[in-house]
Amino acid sequence: MESTTSVSKGVFLFPNGFKRTKHLKKKSKQPLFESIFKKEPWYMTFKSNWNIIEHQLKELHEQTYSAMLNDVVNYVKSFDQTCLYDSIEGIIPSATLLTGVNQPDHVNQFLALIHKIREDVTPHVAMISSQDAQTVKHMVESAVSQLIHGQEYLDDSADESMIEPTVRLKKSQCTMRSLLNWYQSTHMNTSPKKLKHAPPKKILVIIMPDFESFNCNILQDFVMIISSYISSLPIVLIFGVATSVSALHKSFPYHVSSKLLIKVFHSHPSHVYMNQVVENIFLTHTSPFHLSGRALELLTDVFLFYDFSVTGLVQSVKYCMMEHYYGDNIKTLCCNREKIEETVSKLKSDELENIRQLLSFRPFLEVQDCETKIGLFEDDNFFREILSKEMHKLHDYLHSFYLCVHMLSALVKDLPKNLLGKTVREIYTKCTTEHITETQPYRECMQLIGFQSQIKMAESIKNALKEVNSVLQTSSPVKPLRSTPSKTNTISVKVSNDLGQDFAKLIRIHLLTFLRQIESANNEGLILGNANEEQEHDLDTDVAPGNRYKLKEKLLKATRVERVQSEFEMVRSRFMSYLGEVFARGLQPPRTQTFHELLFFSDVASVKKQIVGSPRGALHLALNNPVHYLQCSCCHLPSPESISEWLPDVSIAYKLHRECGKHINLYDWLQAFAAVLRPDEEDEERFQDASLQARFTRAVAELQFLGFIKSSKRKTDHVMRLTW
Amino acid sequence: MHEINASQLSTQIKLIRKYLKLKIIEDNITFRDHASERKHVYELITKAVLHGESHSALIIGPRGCGKTALINSVLHQVSKEADLVNDAIVVKLNGLIHHDDKVALKSITAQMQLENAVGDRVFGTFAENLSFLLSCLMSGTDRRCKSMVFILEQFDMFCHSTRTQTLLYNLFDITHSKQAPMCVLGVTNRIDVMELLEKRVKSRFSHRHIFIFPNENTENSEVKSPLSNCKEMLVQCLSMPLALGRRDLPKKRKGRKSIVSNEEVMDIDSTDSQYSIPEQILTKCRTDVKQFQHLEWAFLEDWNSHVQSLVQDQKLVDSLEKLCYYTVNEQIIKDILFQTVSKLSPSKPYIDAIELSNTIDETVSSEQRVKLLQSLSILELSLVIAMMHGIEIFDGQPMNFEMVLHRYTKFANANSSNQSVPRPVVLKAFEHLQQLEIIMPSKSTDSHTLGDTSTSRVQKEYKLYTLAAPVHDIKEAIKSYKALPTEITHWFNNTID
Amino acid sequence: MEEIYAKVPCRENQLNSLLDLLGEGDEPLPVSVFISGNMATGKSLCVNTILEHLRFKHVNIDCIECYTPKIMYEAILSGLHDDQVDMKCDSLWELMNNLNAYSTQQYSYEPIVLVFDRAERFRAMDQNIMCTFIRLREFCNLNICTLFVTHLIYDSFHFKMGVREPIKIYFPNYNKEELFKIIFIHQKAFVRHLTNNHEVDCGIKEDLERPELFANFLNAFLSVFYRPCRDLIELQHMARVNFVKYCEPIIKNEIKYNDLSKLWRHIAPILKTSLELLYLRINTSKSTAQSPAKENHEWIEPQSYNFENTLKEELLSTKTFAQSFELPYYAKFLLIAAYLASYNPPKEDKRLFMKNHGKQRKRLQQVKAKAKISEKLNTQLGPKIFTLDRLLAIFYAILEEKIGLTSNLLAQIATLVELKLIAGSKEIDLDASKYKCIVGYDFISAVAQTVGFNVRKYLYDFM
């Protein structure tokens, strides 16, 4: 209750707001929309999906940073023993983490580091950010207090003998001397308990995550102070440098830098990390939610052009998801394929109706015969059935699509001039936006692959295989799609029945064979034998639908006898043609698929405003055409340029001032203003009523506040225009 | 001189050394010359103490001319004649420490032993507090207050405190009121101290100035030469009192103790106890005279004659003269003597005139800056030269690193013999110069006040610096720089290249 | 006596004068001594060894950490009282009281020495403090002496009148021979450091341990390094790094340890290159080798090797430094714009960034002339401040494609400020605040290259 009262005091003025505070408090526990939409199915799916993604993100984050963190931690550990610097005293071991330029991303990185150090090396870690290092005093105090009291925050498992000597020191008492005393009292005495619990020397770690924003003079003093204590206190410094090592040398004169033993650790450049995130999390068939090429492009552009912020990217993806799901339940279908049936069964008829309205439903409809159409429209259950089937198809499609994308990227990755782009995301955007197999760059790439030498070829195939395997093993043990009730109604859709898992398997097998052939191809004549029996033992491993290729190979093998010399070319050409077919089938853009709207988020325009906000643009729009925001009937304008008296004063003044030059005569301005408001009256009686002038002055004041004009000293009763 | 064996000698020397050190450092009582001023101060204090009159005076004189010594000696004398402890209270304040009024008041209370009386009661104003303190002093029988002697050293510091001069005001005010007899003596070395006083303070101050100028002897009012004065002091400080050397020391000491109280002051010229350290100093230093009783009369005589001969030494006299031109500060002279005395050891039992004059030269003209410049590496030195040239060209306007580097590289390219160093190294060298304050940032005078963000925003390449070392010092340094490449001297000499 | 000389080599005179001054036993100490001398000339070392030797009670105070005088006072008091009592003391007056109280407890006339290291920091504090400490003896009845150790000379402590002058002792730099001697003392350490990190068979090990080898190396080393650097610490560091290189051929059995000319020919170029790393303290894998944990060092090795070069590059040429860290595309252009804004006079903007700049011919001569007579080019005078509007205007002028002024763009400016690439007043309203670009020319030109932009074309100085 105490807490609630305190909250109520904060929030409410009237005393009887008590019971209200309670449910307000309940709400304030969980975010607002959650409390509202908790019941909504679409929200639940969104929530579950987002949780999945978040989880994946976390894992990825862990494994990307773990390498560097380990390096650092081990480096720090290495000073755990009494470190000897023969003949050079007072040198502080220090690690320098070169993190990318975008600092907000690094927060959790450093938190992870601290956590790791506390686990592995020492409980005494202090993290000083530039905010609490305004003066040397503050810096030392915060560092010392964190070091001394650190292990109490850390965990309760810290033994009592540590706790009871450290009576809470006041900030002002936290000097280096007190630290020294504390350290000697805690660690120098060698009670057996302590010995078994901790090594006699525990090093002290001080982390400065944002090196650049420190005041370098303060930092220098700090370093000097520590260096004077280093003989008695094993301190290790860790700097987080965003730009580069020479930032250190920029801010340290040599009498300071000579006190440091600098060791540099590089973390991934952020765009690599971004690619990883995008490729491993969003561009997989496992992720339930898919971005259309345009959307992805937008996000990545924001990333590359504006801020190298991965968190920013993830957040905007989340925003897209919200936008995608928000408010309509048919999006509940956008879930992983186990849930499809039940969600479909849950759908109400009006929602089904919405689905029927979807554009991509039309082409599907065309190809059906009439009673199917009728069935689709009349019979909800039948429609449900079809729907679920289609959804499964869609998922299969996705599976193969991503597979192909990855394969393609693996193949074209190391082509001379990257026509399709290097990274998966670039290729993905291309594939989603158009029929890539028709495009010119694609063909050229294929040609280039065609000209590849033997080894290179083998290499690229290996890469492709890697992709395929990874996809195969990642793909959840999903039930083969034959089990979907397609057999029931004969008049069902013409299922392009070689997509999905089997498709992948198939590809794998073929790639394997090609690989073998190509590798064995070079030793010319004497290959035939083993090549043959390879093929034989291929045959039995082979599954049915691959037959045509087998046949083709057989034929070609028959012909090989006379044209031995060009055997590698033949294999290669076959490989190429095969690739051609695969991609042709795999890489159809999503919009050709039925119901793709359900899974793909393509509404870029609506999101763009929010993701790349443009304050001045918005301001201009608001003033120039208030309807856009006010949504009121009164001030509709024939054209955004025109002025009506119904507009708010500010926007009138704004529109008027846009017509003026650099200097605006207030008097004329006022006249124009009045003329707009009172078109019918004569000038003199306009000036009779003070209300006009009052309104005008207020409008002008507001404009000045918004930074459009400023009063100029040069000319009397003129104001200067600031924007153009 | 007659011979003594080594062990004896060493003990003798050690004792002498210690005794002389004691005398030079600790003796702040014995006071020479300025008889009239001394008399004046003596009268003031005695009036206050004995007849309960109130006075205020300023003792003004250059640094190290023995103002404090004067007061000490007077107090010492007075303490012998009347018992200061019972019917007077001496409160000493120092501007360095007590310039804050609250602190001053606290310490006044402490020196009057009234902490318990004050306890933890709070006072509205400073005046209330002070008057309360005084009222505490009213001894029960006759409502007459103990007379007080306030001695304010570093008087100017009391005025400097940006706050109002409440302490001074109240003190002087009381000297006018009949509340309590007190004598306020300000001691300062600033002639212009009066300008620092507030009007109200000035009006209450009885404009009694006691100027003490060194080297003037007032009983026969002809100025005596600083040199002779200096000599006198040297002898005074270095020679030993024969009194210590008496064979029959123990029993004689008894008698001496009995008479010491009055003898000490009146018959200065009694040959044996001359040059001796006053008793109370020794007690203050917790050293017992007895430990000196092993000194031998003959040896002491020997020593004194040696000192006398020292003064006759011509070279020494010259250097003493130089010293007198340089300073009249007795503290400095004492320091010099201290150094020479501390050099005494069994191996060299006598003061070497040469050494002494060397020490004097050292103090008179210590060319530390030149030495500092010589300690620079050649790179740094050439940077300094480059800067000097630059400043000569753009008559004395500050330069930044870029300009200096520009000049330096021009020079370096001109003659290929010195190997070129990359820019960052030069920058570091430049920083080193700034560390040593051979160059100073032109905006703020102190290098360590650069902490403020405004200056730290500027790239250090573009921070403007001025040369702190004067040109002639650089000349000196260059002249006597060991193994300096010729091209650099050449470069230094022809200015505009 | 001798062990002191051994401990503090080549400082006999200073040691003697200090010893004389401090005297022995309960002789009175001088009031205050001022010890000055360049960095790394063994000032503190001398003082501490002597005090240890004489067993005087002394307190060492490092003035840097005394950001408030309180710390200093309490340090002094807790130093005097042997039993660890932390007493409050935050004004000179209280310090005096405590000292006097302490003196009353004393029975003997025991000498006490206060050592203030880095005394130059006193000037940051209230001036009374140092004045008081210089004449501390007069205020408290103790046989106490204050030693001030600093790298500044007495004159640069601009004291007011009425300060008691301390006795001054000056520590000159070590000359070449002394440096040789001192570094040579650590010969064992060097060899150990070498043999720890390289596996050498015993035969060669003996060769390495020969002093004459090291002596030869030192001669060669000093002949190169003595000129630009006199700092003992730095020299030791460089010597450590280079000695390893010097011995590598011996370890590999390519050169015999006594083949001096060969060795010299081998080391000379190395020394020359490492001369360029003077003062820079680039952590080569050698100095990681100082960390005792071998296995750790093992796997750090490759990493540090391939970064070593890049680091060196970075520090030597800002060019590679500029390419070494990535910026967002627009951020780069913003940075360039900022540079142009701060190195071009505003009145030139129109001519520089508009398509039709008018009478340029005449200007050119003027500029040329100006450039000739003075070295006061903008690129030498440093950046001027500019407003946000100007920055944006230039930004849009040099940027080919048209993009909206988005919030992310504005955020980038803040980021650049955070990264200390642009110095700006961190005010709330961006419009009012002024900025200044704080990166060098070659840096910016390197950045510009990455986006294919020619800075030189737009710089007023180079017209």
From TrEMBL, chain A:
Quaternary context: Component of ORC, a complex composed of at least 6 subunits: ORC1, ORC2, ORC3, ORC4, ORC5 and ORC6. ORC is regulated in a cell-cycle dependent manner. It is sequentially assembled at the exit from anaphase of mitosis and disassembled as cells enter S phase.
Protein name (database record): Origin recognition complex subunit 3
Function description: Component of the origin recognition complex (ORC) that binds origins of replication. DNA-binding is ATP-dependent. The specific DNA sequences that define origins of replication have not been identified yet. ORC is required to assemble the pre-replication complex necessary to initiate DNA replication. Binds histone H3 and H4 trimethylation marks H3K9me3, H3K27me3 and H4K20me3.
Keyword annotations: DNA replication, DNA-binding, Nucleus, Phosphoprotein
Superkingdom field: Eukaryota
Family affiliation: Belongs to the ORC3 family.
Residues forming coiled coils: none
Domain Origin recognition complex subunit 3 winged helix C-terminal, residue spans: 616-724
Annotated InterPro entries: ORC3, ORC3_ins, ORC3_N, ORC_WH_C
Keyword presence, Transit peptide: no
A Pfam family per the record: WHD_ORC
Lineage summary: Eukaryota, Metazoa, Ecdysozoa, Arthropoda, Hexapoda
CDD domains, sorted: Orc3 (cd20704)
Localisation per UniProt entry: Nucleus
Domain Origin recognition complex subunit 3 insertion, residue spans: 345-603
Keyword presence, DNA-binding: yes
TrEMBL record, chain B:
Superkingdom of source: Eukaryota
Gene Ontology BP annotations: DNA replication initiation
UniProt keyword terms in alphabetical order: DNA replication, DNA-binding, Nucleus
An example molecular function term from Gene Ontology annotations: DNA replication origin binding
Domain ATPase AAA-type core: from-to ranges: 58-208
Domain Origin recognition complex subunit 4 C-terminal residue range list: 296-478
UniProt key word Acetylation: no
Predominant location: nucleus
Family note: Belongs to the ORC4 family.
Biological function: Component of the origin recognition complex (ORC) that binds origins of replication.
Protein name, UniProt field: Origin recognition complex subunit 4
Organism field: Bicyclus anynana
Designated gene of the protein: LOC112050023
Automatic annotation (TrEMBL), chain C:
Nucleus keyword on record: yes
Keyword Nucleotide-binding attached: yes
Protein name in the entry: Origin recognition complex subunit 5
Domain Origin recognition complex subunit 5 C-terminal: 327-459
Alphabetical list of InterPro entries matching this protein: AAA_16, ORC5, ORC5_C, ORC5_lid, P-loop_NTPase
Entry GO terms, CC: nuclear origin of replication recognition complex
A GO MF label: DNA replication origin binding
Organism for this UniProt entry: Bicyclus anynana (Squinting bush brown butterfly)
Primary localisation category: nucleus
Residue ranges annotated for the ORC5 lid domain, each copy included: 215-273
Pfam families xrefs: AAA_16, ORC5_C, ORC5_lid
Family note: Belongs to the ORC5 family.
GO biological process annotation, one example: DNA replication initiation
